Amino acid sequence: MIRENLQNTLKEAMKQRDMDTVSAVRLIIAGMKEKDVEARGKGKDQASEDDLLSMMQTMVKQRTESVQIYTNNNRSDLAEKEQKEIDVIMRFLPKQLNKDDITAIIKQIVVETNASSIKDMGKIMSCLKKQYNGQMDFAVASSIIKEVLQ
Asked: How far apart are CA 26 and CA 6, in angstroms?
């Protein structure tokens, strides 16, 4: 599904001469091809949807950090370019959960798994990644888990 959406978006952006979108989608496709090569090394035909979602989340995180750096160094032109890429990438990701939603989900999983200490963090993270891959920032989830389990 993601692959088709990327190709269709690329074609549409090229027709409309939207070079910002064309550039960002090509970056995503390049990353997707790298993931496919990596997957073939593991005996799979291509990268899974979860792998692609994870890759795009990483791309957003990298660009967000770049925006911050460019803004701090008064390079608004570069920050704006990175922000446009973030906007394009976000079109292909599911709706992102906010901190309150993540906290509620984690509390529910803690109850379901009978987690009682920080040693159970791996079990909780595993559940989150299976059910909510591409929908949340797992660094934020990690800090929330630490707060809940203390």
From this structure: 9
**Which stretches within 91-135 are classed as H helix?**
99-113, 121-132
Q: Find the helix packing angle between 19-41 and 49-72, rounded to 10°.
A: 130
What value does the mean pLDDT take over residues 88-100? 89
Contact between residue 6 and residue 92 where contact means Cβ atoms under 8 Å apart: yes
Contacts of 82 (CB under 8 A, 6+ apart): 63, 64, 66, 67, 70
pTM: 0.76
Q: Is 143 helix (H, G, I), strand (E, B) or coil?
A: helix
Cβ neighbour number for residue 21 with a 10 Å cutoff: 20
Least Cα distance to 25 among 8, 45, 46 occurs for 8
